Amino acid sequence: MGECLDEVxxxxxxxxxxxxxxxVVILFARIRHNDFANDPVRGRMFYFIMGPxxxxxxxxxxxxxxxxxxxxxxxxYGYIAIxxxxxxxxxxxxxxxxxxxxxxxxxxxxxxxxx
Length: 115
Prior knowledge:
Layout: H1 2-32, H2 40-62, H3 77-100, H4 110-114
Helix pairs in contact: 1-2, 2-3
Keywords: Membrane, Transmembrane, Transmembrane helix
Transmembrane segments: 12-33, 45-65, 71-89
């Protein structure tokens, strides 16, 4: 019984680390850098680093850190962490496409300015 409690505590600690990482990313990206609107290169790099870290934590929670010996334990946060990591990578991909657009694509057409 003691081993089961240790495994659950270890699992919960990593869930806490993962939630803290999510909060830090949200605060850093949204509040401090306005979702990297002015610096898509930095945002792309940020999300491409943090996304795989979040996915790795999710995989660890589903495999190595999952308390398999404990009957009745249902850990689902690993799936949520993987999903959040995929969303972050997707944001990095979107920032890549914004960065790769030519400067003329962001301007208003001449006919619309004259109207």
